[in-house]
Amino acid sequence: AQKVTQAQTEISVVEKEDVTLDCVYETRDTTYYLFWYKQPPSGELVFLIRRNSFDEQNEISGRYSWNFQKSTSSFNFTITASQVVDSAVYFCALSEAVQAGTALIFGKGTTLSVSS
Amino acid sequence: NAGVTQTPKFQVLKTGQSMTLQCAQDMNHEYMSWYRQDPGMGLRLIHYSVGAGITDQGEVPNGYNVSRSTTEDFPLRLLSAAPSQTSVYFCASRASGQNSNQPQHFGDGTRLSIL
């Protein structure tokens, strides 16, 4: 069965600190997709990244970077030099190939609080 | 471009009442889904559809019905509301294609309270 675990329920940092949000997943499929979403206090869900299981290349986008390791079934998210605007709930999610990102299994989320 | 539109944004029901949460998208997306978000539980998949006339159950389908008569609309029905269905409901859509890098587009959510 599919499962996504975000062990960190809440993280508090001070601005400019780096922070890593952990995500561990379980799936029996060899082809699957991993996602990160951000939910700011306003409540909407903002797509951050999608990664295919056959592409283990890490990705950097501005202050955001993602580390995908199939050997440990992890897809961790790092924010460099955090800012107050990064305060949000962050969700990691998984979808298997047949659903191709249609049916997402979400982790319970990590609430990140960045103080000035 | 409206994207994914959910109505209503807020609703209060009494136990046993029925209602339909509306979801419409104008992006011609084949794939649509419904999720509920509860405190400490993240988002859980209720039902999803890969095209008109095709629906399937997610993690928590009990108490909910869906249908997909058109590509644009994917309503979620509560036949007999229960307090356990108090939640925030999100609808999402995505373009088709297994290798597509298109993400799911989420609506702004419907906050539903069952008394």
Report on the structure:
The complex is a heterodimer of chains A (116) and B (115). By secondary structure, chain A is mostly beta strands. Chain A has no helices and twelve strands. Chain A has strands spanning 3-5, 10-14, 19-21, 24-26, 32-39, 46-52, 59-61, 64-69, 74-79, 88-96, 105-106, 110-115. In chain A, β5 (32-39) and β6 (46-52) form a beta hairpin. The N and C termini of chain A lie far apart (41 Å). Chain B has strands at 4-7, 10-13, 19-25, 31-38, 42-51, 54-57, 64-66, 76-78, 87-94, 105-106, 110-114. Chain B is globular. Chain B is built from no helices and eleven strands. Chain B is mainly beta and 115 residues long. The model of chain B has no long low-confidence stretch (mean pLDDT 91). The interface between A and B is medium-sized, with 22 and 30 residues.
Q: Decide which structural class fits the backbone of chain B.
A: mainly beta
> Can you tell me the residue ranges of chain A where pLDDT is under 50 for at least 5 consecutive residues?
none
Strand content of chain A: over 45%
Largest sheet of chain A: 6 strands, mixed
Order of helices and strands of chain B: EEEEEEEEEEE
Can you summarize the main beta sheet of chain B?
Answer: 7 strands, mixed
Identify the quaternary structure here.
heterodimer
Low-confidence stretches of chain B: none
Q: Of all protein chain pairs, which has the greatest interface, and how many residues does each chain bring to it? A: A-B, 22 and 30 residues
Helical coverage of chain B, percent range: under 10%
The Cα radius of gyration of chain B reads 14 Å
Q: Give the overall pLDDT of chain A as a whole number.
A: 92
Number of helices of chain B: 0
Given the structure, what is the number of helices of chain A?
A: 0
Q: Residue-averaged pLDDT of chain B, rounded?
A: 91
Terminal Cα span of chain A: 41 Å
N- to C-terminal distance of chain B: 36 Å
Number of beta strands of chain B: 11
Shape of chain A: globular
Instruction: Tell the overall outline of chain B.
Output: globular
